[in-house]
Amino acid sequence: MSKQTTSKSKKAICILSGGMDSTLASYIAKKDGNEIIAVHFNYGQRTEKRELKAFRDICNDLEILNKYEIDIPFFTQIGASALTDETIDVPVNGVESGVPITYVPFRNGIFLSITAAIAEKEEASAMYIGVVQEDSSGYPDCTDEFIADITKAINQGTKETTKIEIKTPLVHLSKKQIVQHAKELNVPLEHTWSCYKESEKACGVCDSCRLRLNGFKLANAKDPIPYKV
């Protein structure tokens, strides 16, 4: 039996880390005419408190009242990622083959599964996630194939009346295009945070900072957040 969408108000759940990509994805969701429900995950990442501040600031910018702050402590227990294990250094040389050490095991799969439960409860029809293939080369949970498969699994594992679409509006964009699109939509990029290492001033040398800064450079724009380097 095929599932039918409900005729209720159009709701979308946005996975909002506080970074530039997820913030732009949330602004696109609003532009698409959705009532936004924001979800943020505290998972023991090095910049957890700074990312949470960014999330709250952006929710204020978007006037989002319905939001969830979810704690996932087990990522620090399993380690295996430079983002959640303090004994593993965050790479700063920009050269890394294979799956990067900043990959958190099945993070997006876990985020999407939890968000799906929230989407079912809230009777939302879409979930937005700001995955970017350029940003995540080597991350197995950022591909179109993965998103298609987990969408199928989510809809098989939820009620017949639940029909959820996972939207990835940035997946094939370059960082330059993301900066340009963000500026077109008046996204408050000064409230976003992308650095893997630091919370006061972005390090400027981790992979995330490098990609972000290069995007601004190619877009001929100035990044409004402070950097050490």
TrEMBL record:
Record-listed Zn(2+) binding positions: C195, C203, C206, C209
Cofactor note (record): Binds 1 zinc ion per subunit.
Keywords: ATP-binding, Ligase, Metal-binding, Nucleotide-binding, Queuosine biosynthesis, Zinc
EC numbers, comma separated: 6.3.4.20
A molecular function (GO) term: ligase activity, forming carbon-nitrogen bonds
GO biological process, one term: tRNA queuosine(34) biosynthetic process
Cofactor: Zn(2+)
Biological pathway: Purine metabolism; 7-cyano-7-deazaguanine biosynthesis
Annotated catalysed reactions: 7-carboxy-7-carbaguanine + NH4(+) + 2 ATP = 7-cyano-7-carbaguanine + 2 AMP + 2 diphosphate + 2 H(+)
SUPFAM superfamilies (UniProt xref): Adenine nucleotide alpha hydrolases-like (SSF52402)
Residues reported to bind ATP: L16, S17, G18, G19, M20, D21, S22, T23, L24, A25, S26
PANTHER family in the cross-refs: 7-CYANO-7-DEAZAGUANINE SYNTHASE
Role this protein plays: Catalyzes the ATP-dependent conversion of 7-carboxy-7-deazaguanine (CDG) to 7-cyano-7-deazaguanine (preQ(0)).
NCBIfam families per record: 7-cyano-7-deazaguanine synthase QueC (TIGR00364)
Stated family: Belongs to the QueC family.
Protein name: 7-cyano-7-deazaguanine synthase
Organism: Poseidonibacter parvus
Lineage, opening ranks: Bacteria, Pseudomonadati, Campylobacterota, Epsilonproteobacteria, Campylobacterales
